[in-house]
Design brief:
The chain is α+β, with helices and mostly antiparallel strands. It is built from five helices and ten strands; from the N terminus they run H-E-E-E-E-E-E-E-E-H-H-H-H-E-E.
DNA sequence: TGGAATGTTCGGCT
DNA sequence: AAGCCGAACATTCC
């Protein structure tokens, strides 16, 4: 489920349940190694909840609780534990569940925020973005997915941003003209802002902490529209594999 | 039945 | 060193 807009939506919906609350206990139902670190969070008060790239960070008295939703993780303001509930945050008032079918997600206690990530995809300035593009000898699709280059983009919004900018996913980052680099920066900020405003994309079963779906999937122009006509030129949308990820683009609007 | 799915990490190769 | 590739993690859905 989770790229920047989905994580941002979860943060906004879960924050009111967590801020000011005391984490009495964290019960884990998994044998993943991350479950052992959460003990250090028990007994602590949650001072703030914020998004850091695709991480949800709970600021505690000491250190942070870092939640990553992986591919299918959900944070739910609920007490209805199900077969995929991997952790239960027991608060002094209420509970929050961490459900995760595929178990690529995690909840772990950290001394400080995760290091070595690039600037936030919604906050990066055009100048900084251009400078960073220039410094990389890599193709755009894998580069934009790389969280140490820019944090927050995933497969959906990378494809959507490249389409909006009219840039081929295999184009070399360092060889983009300044104009096209700026266009890409605007496309990224625009598509992410619009998606946040729509509560993210519910392409399989993504829901926010209150169980509500997002609606941005209705605005997707290329992602999972293989064979359907391009909304701009009518050419069928093509799907290729780029570093093992399905990559969708319009061969006419996004020439190499 | 095989393949694909919103993600990250690690080892190996160039 | 940087970047690419494939595999691995676990499960469901079509």
């Amino acid at each position: 489920m989770p790229e920047l807009p989905e994580v941002e939506t979860v943060v906004r919906t879960v924050a009111p349940r967590l801020v000011g609350r005391r984490l009495l206990k964290i019960r884990c139902f998994t044998r993943k190694p991350w479950a052992r670190s959460v003990r250090k969070a028990e007994g602590q008060t949650v001072h703030s909840v914020r998004r850091y790239g695709k991480f949800i960070l709970l600021e505690l008295d000491q250190g942070l609780l870092a939640i990553h939703l992986g591919m299918t993780g959900k944070l739910l303001a609920s007490i209805d534990e199900g077969p995929y509930t991997r952790a239960v945050l027991v608060l002094d008032q209420g509970t929050v569940l961490f459900d995760d079918v595929r178990q690529f997600g995690s909840v772990r206690w950290l001394r400080r925020e995760p290091g070595k990530l690039g600037p936030d995809a919604l906050a990066v300035t055009a100048e900084d973005f251009l400078r960073r593009l220039r410094a990389r000898k890599a193709r755009l699709k894998p580069l934009l997915l790389n969280q140490s280059f820019l944090r927050g983009l995933g497969n959906i919004y990378t494809d959507e941003a490249l389409f909006r900018a009219g840039i081929h996913p295999l184009a070399m980052a360092a060889r983009l003209t300044g104009q096209r680099g700026l266009r890409l920066h605007s496309a990224i900020v625009e598509v992410l802002s619009e998606a946040v405003a729509k509560g993210g994309s519910s392409i399989s079963d993504y829901v926010d902490a209150d169980g509500r779906q997002g609606w941005f999937q209705l605005q997707h122009r290329v992602y999972q529209r293989t064979g359907e006509p391009c909304v701009v030129c009518g050419e069928p949308i093509r799907r290729i594999l780029v570093s093992q990820r399905g990559t969708h683009f319009c061969p006419r609007c996004q020439r190499r």
